[in-house]
Amino acid sequence: MFPLIHGWTDVQRSPEANLRLGLVLTFVAGATNAGGFLAVGSYTSHMTGIVSSVADDLVLGNIALALAGIVCLMAFVAGAMCTAVLVNWGLRQQLRSSYSLPLLLESGALLVFGLFGAAIAAWSQLFVPVTVVLLCFIMGLQNAVITKISKAEIRTTHITGLVTDLGIELGKLVYMNRSQPGSPVRANRQRLRVQLALVLGFFLGGLTGALGFKYWGYITTVPLAALLWVLCLRPLLTDLRKHAA
Fold first, then answer.
1. What is the model's pTM?
2. Phi then psi for 220, rounded to 5 degrees?
3. What is the mean pLDDT of the chain?
4. DSSP for 161-200, written as a single string
5. What is the pLDDT of residue 12?
6. Which of 31, 93, 125, 195 counts the highest number of beta carbons within 10 A?
7. Distances 232 to 79, 110, 114 between C-alpha atoms, Å
8. Is the pLDDT confidence value at 178 over 50?
9. What is the DSSP letter of 218?
10. Which residues in the chain belong to E strands, given as ranges?
11. Contacts 24+ apart (CB under 8 A), 115-123
């Protein structure tokens, strides 16, 4: 029914299946990150920057900003923890939708962000800090899902790591192997293709999210939530039929 995501909850997953799911989630993460920046002026997937800003703000005496950064970091960690709890509970219950549960929660959070965008804009002093925390939670939630599924081979929000790995493989690719002792240096071309595809997916998602938010506003996140629902639909229906039998 959905060939892109067929079998994405299987225990034994192929690298191709991980890549297809990773591309979808990376696209969603890029779009959410870019749209969130235009909404609240903060990139909520960038924990390196947030931790650095906390250190800077503490040194400069900006205690309120430092505390805000710590709350964002805690929200990201809480999202990852929530994924671990939901997935492990689902696996204990032998649900095929184990990995769908955090994505359902993410889609609900995106719907809140998209449908209540007008209130966020009208009451910015109250809702913008809450929105930043919500987006950080979403990023931690989603990044942990694909990390668990792919056994940490794929990350959907950690582009710094992807670009670093990409540089390492490119360095191996251009390395001149001459008559030297030992095994020749060889690039992992499959890994190289995966890294390029994920970086491109995040960029295209960011481009889509930025353009969508510019012209249509907060409602742009609603299709992203719907895409996550499509990802979850097949395993959820399987579990429903199983428990109804």
1. 0.77
2. -60, -30
3. 80
4. HHHHHHHHHHHHHH----S-SSPPP---HHHHHHHHHHHH
5. 46
6. 31
7. 18, 15, 20
8. yes
9. G
10. none
11. 115/218, 115/219, 115/222, 116/218, 117/39, 117/217, 117/218, 117/219, 118/218, 120/39, 120/40, 120/218, 121/218
Averaged over 99-115, what is the pLDDT? 85
Cα torsion angle, 53, 57, 58, 62, sign: negative
- pLDDT classification of 161: cutoffs 50, 70, 90: confident
Pair of tokens at residue 134: 């919500």
Range 43-48, long-range pairs (CB < 8 A, 24+ positions) = 44/72, 44/76, 44/132, 44/135, 44/136, 44/138, 44/139, 45/139, 45/143, 45/157, 45/158, 45/159, 47/73, 47/76, 48/160
Mean pLDDT of 190-219: 87
Is residue 212 scored above 50 in pLDDT?
yes
